Amino acid sequence: QVDLVESGGGLVQAGGSLRLSCAASGRIFSSYTMGWFRQAPGKEREFVSAITWNNGNTRYADSVKGRFTISRDNAKNTVYLQMNSLKPEDTAVYYCAAGQNSYDVWGQGTQVTVSS
């Protein structure tokens, strides 16, 4: 069983930066994909970014391309989301997720608030 714990959220002004971390405990299969999702108040959860555990291939939502960078540290079983040039519309609870064919495991979420 895999458990995911997110950290790094907080309050930041527009244009600022935050780095989210997702620490995974348990067995991470090399075929896993690790993803970041977010959910703003009153909105559906949306995909932000993903990285494959074995070869590090990455994907981004159009809304964050060029501003967010996902990375992983295999030795630490940790995935990061570096968020730069933050906008008020990035305000949401950010969730880390993991899985092979689908995202089966989810973290508890971390709040990111961007003030204008």
Figure out the total of helices: 0
Classification by helices and strands: mainly beta
Contiguous low-pLDDT stretches (5 residues minimum) are none
Q: What is the tally of beta strands? A: 11
Distance between the termini: 40 Å
Q: What is the alpha-carbon Rg in Å?
A: 13 Å
Sheet with the most strands, sense and barrel status: 7 strands, mixed
Quaternary status: single chain
Global mean pLDDT: 95
Shape: globular
Give the SSE string: EEEEEEEEEEE
Helix content: under 10%
Strand fraction equals: over 45%
Describe the structure in your own words.
- The mean pLDDT is 95.
- The chain contains no helices and eleven strands.
- The chain has 116 residues and is mostly beta strands.
- Strands 2, 4, 5, 6, 9, 10 and 11 form a seven-stranded mixed β-sheet that branches. The chain has a four-stranded antiparallel β-sheet with strand order 1-3-8-7, with no helix packed on it.
- It starts with a strand and ends with a strand.
- A hairpin with a 6-residue loop joins strand 4 (33-39) and strand 5 (46-52).
Record the SSE blueprint:
Layout: E1 3-7, E2 10-13, E3 18-25, E4 33-39, E5 46-52, E6 58-60, E7 68-73, E8 78-83, E9 92-99, E10 105-106, E11 110-115
